[in-house]
């Protein structure tokens, strides 16, 4: 399948600041996108998703933005906390319900 | 969301042997998937486990190496056959949620090390 990639492999932010994690996708036919959080030794945890007919979706402290024109997806985390430290993956739906995952960004929250 | 468990959580195996990983869901789900996550890497889909029929494999994965069973709507197994050190990975099962959107939820993973 076509690739889904991340701009930054690592991101370090101070506690209380906002975090923005970016993701580029190349399959223009993808119509569904998900952000996952993976802590060490655990499986990916669903954070938030968005369909291609939307450009913004908000959850608790998280917002996903979708720009279909430039095929770009971002995850914004407000007031980042130490518990937010993890690897974050974007994923796109490209065939049926199967997901194509991006490379991942490691988020480190410092006190 | 569904509660997903996997057995074993981790294992260390000798090359040439096989390991069967179990995935149990606490509710009936229509679709189950198996993914591989190599060390420090992202997730790659191995196959879709179909209930009552043969699994659907992604490019690069074959049934002889990764046989899959799905006897009912709450259970699936993935076997890693004739293992080599290159098979050392985390193997994860996932299920499609029953909500309005197509949320996919993951199990905790099985960490496999092949010596």
Comma- or semicolon-separated keywords:
heterodimer, A: 111 residues, mainly beta, Immunoglobulin-like, six-stranded mixed beta sheet, five-stranded antiparallel beta sheet, 11 strands, 58% strand, B: 115 residues, seven-stranded mixed beta sheet, four-stranded antiparallel beta sheet, 0% helix, globular
Question: Would you give an account of this structure?
Answer:
The complex is a heterodimer of chains A (111) and B (115). Helix content of chain A is 0%, strand content 58%. Chain A has strands at 4-6, 10-14, 19-25, 32-38, 45-51, 56-58, 62-67, 72-77, 86-95, 98-101, 105-110. In chain A, the strands form 2 sheets. In chain A, strands 2, 4, 5, 9, 10 and 11 form a 6-stranded mixed sheet that branches. In chain A, a hairpin with a 6-residue loop joins β4 and β5 (45-51). The radius of gyration of chain A is 13 Å and the shape is globular. Chain A starts with a strand and ends with a strand. Chain B has 115 residues and is mainly beta. Chain B has one domain (4-114): Immunoglobulins (Immunoglobulin-like, Sandwich), CATH 2.60.40. Chain B has no helices and 11 strands. Chain B has strands at 4-7, 10-13, 19-25, 32-37, 43-49, 56-57, 68-72, 75-80, 89-96, 104-106, 110-114. In chain B, a hairpin with a 5-residue loop joins β4 (32-37) and β5. Chain B is globular and about 45 Å long. The relative contact order of chain B is 0.34. Chain A binds chain B through residues 32, 34, 36, 41-46, 49, 51, 89, 91, 93, 96-104, and chain B through 1, 4, 31, 33, 41-45, 48, 58, 92, 96, 101-109, 111.
